[in-house]
Amino acid sequence: MLGLETASGSVEAITTIGLVLVEAxxxxxxxxxxxxxxxxxxxxxxGGE
Amino acid sequence: MDILxxxxxxVGIFVGFGLLIxxxxxxxxxxxxxxxxxxLLVMGYPSTVAVGSGLAFVFGxxxxxxxxxxxxxxxxxxxxxxxxxxxxxxxxxxxSVVFFLDSTGMADLIISISYVGLLxxxxxxxxxxxxxxxxxxxxxxxxADRVQSLHIPPMVTLRGDVRVSGTIIFxxxxxxxxLSGFLGVGGGFLLMPAMMYGLGVPAAxxxxxxxLQITISGGFGAFRxxxxxxxxxxxxxxxxxxxALGARIGAGATQLVEEDAIKGYFAxxxxxxxxAVAAKELGxxxxxxxxxxxxxxxxxxxxxxxxxxxxxxxxxxLRNDSVGMWCRLTTS
Lengths: 49, 332
Fold this sequence. Notes:
The complex is a heterodimer of chains A (49) and B (332). Chain A has 49 residues and is mainly α. Helix content of chain A is 92%, strand content 0%. Chain A has a domain at 20-49. Chain A is rod-shaped and about 60 Å long. Mean pLDDT of chain A is 82; it is low at 1-5. Chain B has 332 residues and is an all-alpha fold. Chain B has one domain. In chain B, 76% of the residues lie in helices and 2% in strands. Chain B has a two-stranded antiparallel sheet. Chain B is globular and about 60 Å long. The model of chain B has no long low-confidence stretch (mean pLDDT 80). Chain B: Its main location: membrane.
């Protein structure tokens, strides 16, 4: 029983960490694409050009 | 309508707070992440969830940092390996202490007091550095020379021709690991000064090794807390969504603004964090509700102030404005 509980806790923990990892990679790629698309425009606008 | 158990307003607050922390992380290369645990504590999350979620957030942030640094990050794998083993053992020790204290009902108080002390010490150290105290560099150098002169076997040679005792590296990693597991911090703001000032590792190698190390130890720490269900995933997800964007803004600002110009604000933020946790504890102990409000205002206010100063300084540089009232404020 105890072993089963620990195993399910570990599976849940791996899922949790996996989700954080996937979100981090998706955000990195997503924001990277966004900044290469509109980054320069935003910088120009902020710089008053 | 709730989003994964959080109200839209709470999601907005966490994304916004993550954005501020991301700016700080991207600009200073450290700091900010250790504001998450005290912020969750003052918002009323149990200490185990605050620490576990803090570690999960640190893991996610450092993955993003590692991805960004992977091309030009210098890493000493020998140093990273010793530190990782030592910190992993240390985190286990720190976590056991948290769960033991939790069972006695004293975890919140002791973790809060430790935060007050640690943030105050690091804050005062940074403030002294910001004010240009002359002895800082030589003191750091002296300490590293003294550590390197201790020939406790096995001796290891690190990048930058640094020869230092493996036993000392292990001991330093163990202590930082205990603090990391105990307080829910990635250890970056302790590891960086320890590697640079304590072991004499060159700054570039310290940064690269630090990020790899934090990714591994943060991931392991978060895993251990997640096993007991002590990671609030929606909170971590919302914080990460903000911090990933903030980290890009902060990293971009480093191309425009010198770190020394903002260091004083950073030190003030650490000290404000320390006062905030102290105020929350006093408020809880004596039933003074207003102190809890003061505490929340201090933590969020300090993060807003420092990340605002970073962004404002960058905007001033982009506009070549050094005489405007706001622009003069950021460099004073």
